[in-house]
Design goal:
The protein is an alpha+beta fold and about 170 residues long. It contains six helices and four strands. The protein has two domains: about 30 residues; about 120 residues, Tetrahydropterin Synthase, Chain A, CATH 3.30.479. Strand 2 and strand 3 form a beta hairpin. Helix 3 crosses helix 4. The protein is elongated. The protein starts with a helix and ends with a helix.
């Protein structure tokens, strides 16, 4: 009989210990920081960034992009320079420091390298991991010829007829 009582107490103690351990372990995992794309970050849109692409001392075209970047709001509040200015400067710096990037050949264009480089160099420049991800909202490249063709089309477009005055409409 004593063996049954000792065994019952032992089973209750082991069960209680296992339950306490599992609740403590599960609570520690719930306190982990949230994953970056699942919450806790702010998403900031940039204005259209237009970078002239210069090759052989002439403008070849314009790189146009709109970016969205995810930032830690607590760290972002510590910045003394507007984040949009830093992002624009970093896009210019990347494009001018990588003249081998050819936007006319989209097959060789590595957008992942572009996004990762912008994020990494911006965080390095700030000295903290503020920018978690750079997303591309829009990216275009307009060659000098395309810009010229658009300008010619606008000049050749028929002008709208002048509107009739209010008196002429009334029949006076």
């Amino acid at each position: 009989m004593i063996k049954f009582i000792i065994a019952a107490v032992w089973i209750c103690a082991v069960t209680a210990g296992a339950a306490i351990y599992s609740f403590q372990n599960a609570g520690a995992k719930a306190d982990d920081t949230p994953k970056p794309l699942l919450g806790g970050l702010d998403y900031i849109n940039t204005d259209m960034i237009s970078v002239p692409m210069v090759k052989d001392a002439t403008i070849q075209g314009y790189f146009l992009t709109k970016l969205v970047y995810t930032v830690d709001p607590a760290e972002m509040a510590k910045l003394s320079v507007p984040a949009s200015a830093l992002m624009t400067d970093q896009v210019y710096s990347y494009l001018y420091s990588n003249p081998q990037t050819d936007f006319t050949n989209t097959a060789d264009l590595d957008l992942d390298a572009f996004r990762n480089n912008i994020r990494d160099t911006l965080n390095k420049r700030i000295g903290a991991d503020i920018v978690h991800d750079v997303l591309i909202d829009q990216v275009n490249f307009l060659s000098k010829d395309e810009i010229r063709d658009n300008a010619v089309r606008r000049k050749e477009a028929p002008k709208p007829a002048p509107k009739e005055t209010a008196e002429a409409a009334k029949g006076h």
